[in-house]
Amino acid sequence: MKVFDTQSQTLKELIPLEGNKIKMYVCGPTVYDFPHLGHARCYITWDVVYRYLKFRGYDVVYVRNITDIDDKIINKAKETNSTPEQIADKYYLEFKNTMDELNVSEPDFEPKATENINEMIDIINSLCEKGFAYTANGDVYFDVSRFQKYGRLSRQNLDDLKAGARVETSEKKKSPLDFALWKSIKDENEISWDSPWGKGRPGWHIECSAMSRKFLGEMIDIHAGGQDLIFPHHENEKAQSEAAFGKDFVRFWMHNGFVRINEEKMSKSLGNFLTIKDVLKKYDANTIRFFILTNQYRMPVEFSEQALESAKNGVARLKNAYNSVKEKLGEERIKESMKKLAFLFDEMSKTGHIPFHEIDKIPVSEEAISGVTDKLIVNFRNFINAMDDDFNTPKALSVLFEVSGCANKAITSESSEYSTYCIALLLKLSETLGFNLEKEEKPADEKLSEIMDVLISVRQMAREQKNWEMSDKIRDELSQIGITLKDHKDKKTTWSFSK
Question: In the prediction, which pLDDT does 274 show?
Fold first, then answer.
């Protein structure tokens, strides 16, 4: 398997540090606002990498942190007359619920910055003792001039960085490139923790070094995130970790491209972002994932309604193939075929070898066996070849279409049972990419919302006229088709799908 490493700018063979174990760290969100489509691109991307590595038989330990203390969180708390804890808790829940809706796997560990302050203080102490950091009136800064390899990840030299770096300025710093490891409080009401340098809070970059070390150790296989994190976040994280630990920090630095609107990066700071919630009102999770995966992860994704509609049609083609076979031959037949092919999926995905000694045990016709050993195996291999080539999801999606086409062709042939094997393969591969073709998506588009607004208005008129029979009938009829109404004292009736 070849993976692109940002630091070396080359495709390198993925060889784990420890046997079959892959230690993977992904920079999680700073929880101060609703997650947007850029977050979907990032976390769907690394979800697919996580799923595929496990599919290939690796023992993956996946850590994705939560930054729950930061200037943005503190400022949002001041703007809304809240506490930083309230802001972080609120938007962490929004992030978690949104990831669930997008079918993004939960990481093995999801540490929060505020739960690991002592680990950060330990590393800062070590940096001070080794001469890589200095104190200034309660603040602690990393001395970039002491770390000779600074700039290698972002491929910049110190002079260029000093001339154009977007870094926080301070009279306390020896150099504009030096970055904060610990920030002292400016007033007693600020959120803070005790430290050897006085009350304060950690800098952003030290958070990831501490949490990565705690859950994965001092050297890891994969460190991933968006392209915007290469500098300064990952450059600084790399510098402080290697200075503190005395060894290389990461084998593979991986970064996903941006989501763009009108050729500009989508971001909160530019004010051109779409929340995932907004997009989910019109498009389901499979469609959003398909839209993201139509571009290789390092490439930018250009957002447009046309692109999402195209993705929606692509998902429909896959689901139609599944539904056609299910309607004609039944869901149980598909499940039986999946069980019969489980050995094939398992051995080929983990070893790359075809278990010919087992294929003859499949109790199907000779023509179906021929199909299994030919088309299914070819497509299975093509999928692996695509994903082994730096997670080439566009090529992997084309394999899914090829398999769905085989199913559509087989369902109308004399050997229609072969179609269940095609669908078994389709479900296996699509699941590896994080799709759920078996799920019946609940319609939640704008038209439905408009219809519900009309029904709620009619029911409200009936209630005002004390026509309780009509009011109850509307509520009960909607309940029977899976829609629950909830009345409120001081606001309009709301609706939701029944669980």
Answer: 86
Q: What would the two tokens of residue 22 be?
A: 């892959």
Point out which residues pair with 202 in neighbouring strands. 182
37 CB-near residues (< 8 Å, 6+ apart): 259, 266, 273, 274, 275, 276, 279, 288, 303
pLDDT tens digits for range 56-109? 999 999 999 999 999 999 999 999 999 999 999 999 999 999 999 999 999 999
Which residues on neighbouring strands pair with residue 61, listed in sequence order? 23
Q: Report the distance separating Cα 287 and Cα 264, nearest Å.
A: 22
Look at the alpha carbons of 50, 53, 55, 59 in this order and tell me if their dihedral is positive or negative: negative
The rounded Cα 89 to chain-centroid distance in angstroms is 19
Residue 153 to residue 378: CA distance in whole angstroms? 39
Going by C-beta distance under 8 Å and a sequence separation of 6 or more, which residues neighbour residue 292? Answer: 40, 41, 44, 45, 301
Every domain of the chain and the residues it spans: 2-131+205-278, 304-432, 446-497
CA atoms within 13 A on the CB side of 351: 8
For 204, 291, 306, the CA distances from 229, given in Å and listed in that order, are 12, 23, 29
Closest Cα to residue 42, out of 300, 287, 233, 253?
A: 300
CATH 3.40.50.620 fits 2-131+205-278, yes or no: yes
301: which strand partners?
A: 259
Closest CA to 424 of 443, 394, 453, 404: 404
Which residues 6+ apart lie within 8 Å of 145 measured at CB?
158, 174, 175
Is domain 304-432 classified as CATH 1.20.120.640?
A: yes
CA distance 284 to 428: 20
Q: How far apart are CA 62 and CA 205, in angstroms?
A: 19
Which candidate, 179, 420, 403, 435, places its Cα nearest to that of 294?
435
* pLDDT tens figures, 7-25: 999 999 999 999 999 999 9
Tokens 């708390």, residue located: 77
Beta bridge partners of 169: none
- Main-chain phi, psi angles of 382, to 5 degrees: -65, -40
CA 157/CA 159 separation, integer angstroms: 6
Beta strands in 173-249 (DSSP E): 179-184, 200-202, 220-226
Confidence at residue 336, expressed as pLDDT on a 0 to 100 scale: 92
Exposed, middle or buried, 132 (CB in 10 Å: 0-12/13-18/19+)?
buried
Give the residue ranges of the chain where pLDDT is below 70.
162-170, 266-272, 356-373, 441-447, 498-499
